[in-house]
Amino acid sequence: MIPYLFLFAYLAVLMGCLWKLFQKAGRPAWAGFIPGYNILVWLRISGKPWWWIVLFIVPGVNLLMFIIMNVNISIVLGERAVKDHVVMVLLPWYKIPQLVFGPEHKYVGPVPPEQRKRTRIAQWGDAILFAVIVATVFRTYTFEAFTIPTPSMEKSLLVGDYLFVSKLSYGPRMPMTPLTFPFTHHTLPFTDHTPSFVTWFSQPYRRLPGFGDPQRGDAVVFNFPEGDTVVANFQNQSYYQLVRDQGRARIWDPNYKMLNMVDGQVRQVPTGGILVRPVDKEENYIKRCVAVAGDTLEVRHGFVYLNGQKQDVPEHAQYAYEFMLRDRFNERMLKEQYDVSPDDITPGENGGVSIPLTAENAEMLSKLPNVISMARQDHPKGYGTPYHKWPYFPNSPDYDWSEDNYGPIWIPKKGVTVKLDLHNLPLFERTIHVYEHNDLEVKDGTILINGAPADSYTFKQDYYWMMGDNRHRSQDSRFWGYVPHENIVGKAVLVWFSKDPYTGIRWKRLFTLVD
Hints:
The chain has helices at 2-24, 37-45, 61-76, 82-90, 92-101, 120-141, 239-246, 248-252, 331-338, 359-365, 425-435, 477-480; strands at residues 143-147, 161-166, 219-223, 229-231, 257-262, 265-270, 274-276, 284-291, 296-300, 303-306, 309-310, 319-325, 346-347, 353-357, 371-376, 406-410, 417-419, 440-443, 446-449, 452-453, 456-458, 463-467, 483-484, 488-500, 504-505, 512-513. By secondary structure, it is α+β, with helices and mostly antiparallel strands. A hairpin with a 3-residue loop joins strand 24 (488-500) and strand 25 (504-505).
């Protein structure tokens, strides 16, 4: 609230002073009270191009533009020392009235080009500032670059693919934390977990119109729904699963140590504390949208069924196959002939090796002479793991689902009301409490929403179900549930560059469309 009070106070001071500035510049005073037109006049008397007015309507960028134009008030009224500019940036509430109403400060106009003695550093500074503004507008409202860091979408999208993600496809989301270090997501460069943003000035969720909503089959980039809380030194793991496995007290202890991979070796690493992130600063994920709001989804033996109908498997989808071998695979041969990376080969559950493969590659590998047997992973309902406690959404002992045999589960839809009871509450608990910002508790067997007994709930936004094409090497909705519409970032549309970690540039993938 306090940052908004400062902002509103600044805007009130500015609007109350522009008319006097215009008078000093020989412009009509009434122009200072016409929204939009007063900005145009302000730009003109400051010697700036008219089209800068567009930058004033871009959230985040507009705050920077007001700071720039505040400095220009000092310039056109004759105060051009660096200290004057610093005071104007830090104390505009005081400095603007002092200048525009002080009779000793006359309008002298912008510095003429022939009098500008600008150093090369100053020239480069202006160019860099302008480039930052333009690039910020472009990546916020049109397209943003994104890198594939994990194999969860192979072989559709590969580790080392560089994508352009279209914000226009589903509508650009307005910045929710506009004060952030340029071209960073959530962490400052050269730091491990220092935030690159501030949360004391934030905006509510809003989205501009787009070409549509996420559809089944789209490759969608979104903010990881469970990424609102992160363990500092274990950011690639779900905080909520770590709490289930280790207990909240241990996870919140910055000195408590757990096993983690460091420089290729498993070591004891302290948690490092807890990081909390707003929605638009949660980690970016990319998955395949397999179900939209209102769908009923079920996974049977690894295959997706929507509303009772079996769905086609994505063309390049992979499943995990376990091989029993007479002799180990030749890793070089696997990479060259089947594009199987050494990192893909992991120990199997029954003493063999597990490899994610397309159906075609699995069939060919099964015929190699050193293969004794091959079986596709198919964990039954009730399958458990000694390493994780209730790993499958809704992460409750009342549901015995596995990643291969899951559901049925209904995807929440905006405006639809569902009946609530203690059995189905785990399916909607996080949605009601976290994503839709309600107080939720169960007291003496009664469900309370915002303090009132409730036996039903009406959803406020649409949700989606995301899964990786690499079905057994993907942390997706089967583990953490629905993706809220407000978490949607954009649609992956183009691979503009691709580099294999082992073999170098993949020339054939450059400038290819995303399926």
